[in-house]
Amino acid sequence: MSNQKDNSGALFKNAKKETEKHPDYRGKCFIGGAEYYIASWIRESKNGNKYMSLSFTKADEKNKKEQSHDYFI
After folding, report:
1. Is pLDDT larger for residue 66 or for residue 37?
2. What's the whole-model pTM score?
3. 70 lies in a domain?
4. Which residue has the higher pLDDT, 66 or 36?
């Protein structure tokens, strides 16, 4: 994603989803010149409206966390 424009990104269906805790979609984006990983879950509100819940993790923070553990999140 080195040609990625700032404040943009992409999500892709998570083919490796094994449990409900795993995101439905995953991807990357660039915000303020920094790379972030995106995780997205399809949720349903109390009144039945579907929406996407998002989580952003700065790429260098995730890499540091993975290097300090023997497992991947």
Report:
1. 37
2. 0.74
3. no
4. 36
In a domain, 73, yes or no: no
What are the C-alpha distances in Å from 3 to residues 11, 30, 31, 33, 46? 16, 10, 13, 12, 40
- Give me the mean pLDDT over the 21-32 stretch: 95
In a domain, 68, yes or no: no
Range of the domain at 28: 8-60
22, 29, 45, 62 from 72: Cα distances, Å: 12, 20, 30, 9
Q: From 31, 36, 13, 32, select the one nearest 23 (Cα to Cα).
A: 13
What helix, strand, coil percent values describe the chain, rounded to 5? 10, 45, 40
Identify whether 2 is part of a domain: no
